[in-house]
Amino acid sequence: MKTPREILLKRHQAAAPKLDAIRHDVLNAEFKVGQASRLSLISLFFQMETGWKSVLRLLWQELIWPCRRTWTALAAVWMALFIFNVSQRDKVELAARKLPPPSPEAILAWRQQEKLLAELIGPSAPGDVERRKIFFPKPRTEIAEAMAV
Amino acid sequence: MLVVAEREQLPVPQAKAGEPEAWDTLFRRYQLPLYVYVFELAHDEQTSLDLVQETFIAAVRHIGSLRDDDKFGSWLFGIAHQKCIQRWRKQRREEVLLDEIPESADEFEGSPDDLLIRQEQEAEFMELLNQLPLPQRSVLLLHFVEDFSLEEIAGITGIPIGTVKSRLHYAKKSLRKLLEEKK
Questions:
Q1: Most B CBs within 10 Å: which of A10, A12, A67, as the mutation test of the B interface?
Q2: Is B63 in contact with A34 (CB distance < 8 Å)?
Q3: A70: distance to nearest CA of chain B, Å?
Q4: Class of domain B100-183
Q5: Domain ranges of chain B
Q6: pLDDT at A133
Q7: H helices within chain A, ranges in order?
Q8: Same-fold call for B1-98 versus B100-183
Q9: CB-side exposure of B178: number of CA atoms within 13 Å?
Q10: Nearest-CA distance from B105 to chain A in Å?
Q11: In a mutagenesis test of the A interface, which of B32, B34, B109 is the best target, namely the one with the most A β-carbons within 10 Å?
Q12: Of B52, B56, B112, the CB nearest to A5
């Protein structure tokens, strides 16, 4: 009499060599990549023997592939933003092109208003500015003498 | 005679620390039961080998997500189960997984060894096992191959414990009935 476990395992015992090969392959591949990933990217850049392909493959395996869904979602969002941005830019340019140039009467009225405004405000007082520029602080003793005089 | 290490002796902490020897021990321990489980669901040698390989790779890469070291076995089988489902979904066979079974069984026989099969019945047993619906076969295999608890099977398959209990009950009942009929 045998248990179901014994029957099942015995039945598939022939697959053991193939499973051993798979185990070796996985461990070799994963721990080679694991060791490489422990090295900093900067040192990888300086190791000429590693080359660009290895760096790109490492980036792909460690950074992109494990979170491919997240990257895909981000790419979709970026694309949507880019398309939205481009469509908005086209609209602004189109609106700017559609605006007619100001008429000569409008330009004349605007210049008159500018002149009127200048007259109302009056000329600026540059003297104050110059006085501020030539002021030098004096020692306190000199200030006290001047006050006494 | 198949030698199986005790769960407590498995070098899970060392594997978490990234020791290849520890991983070798763990994979050596689980490779055949995993293959049996996957093969008896998929019924294709190459697919089963691919799934075992994918499971090993995923285990090495995501060992950080294992909270309880004692649950390494059920965690590994959980990965394998998910890989099987992904493969079926690719093949548009999810309707097989959605097969519902009534949940009413409370009487659940605990040990997988209570069903003993005579040598002349071995081939019949395999044939009958394959006649069971996939959801029943899945829980029965987990029960037979690794003697996982109901909680562990529920964790692996992602179904409630009540459903596991009823599937196991009906699977064993139908298997026993079929074996008796064949006597």
A1: A12
A2: no
A3: 17
A4: mainly alpha
A5: 1-98, 100-183
A6: 56
A7: 4-11, 16-38, 41-46, 51-59, 68-98, 104-121, 126-134, 140-148
A8: no
A9: 20
A10: 22
A11: B32
A12: B112
Q: Is B31 on the interface with A (CB under 8 A)?
A: yes
Residue predicted with more confidence, B113 or A14: A14
**At the top level of CATH, which class does the domain B1-98 belong to?**
mainly alpha
Per residue in B85-112, pLDDT (tens digit) is: 888 887 765 455 544 444 444 444 556 6
Nearby residues of B8 by Cβ (< 8 Å), 6 or more positions away: B70
Amino acid symbol at B10: L
Q: Which residue of B has its CA nearest to A34?
A: B18
Contact status of B61 with chain A (Cβ, < 8 Å): yes
Q: Please state, as a whole number, how many other Cβ atoms lie within 10 Å of the Cβ of residue B162.
A: 14
| Burial state string for B71-90 with b = 16 or more CB within 10 A and e = fewer than 16 | bbbbbbbbbbbbbbbebbee
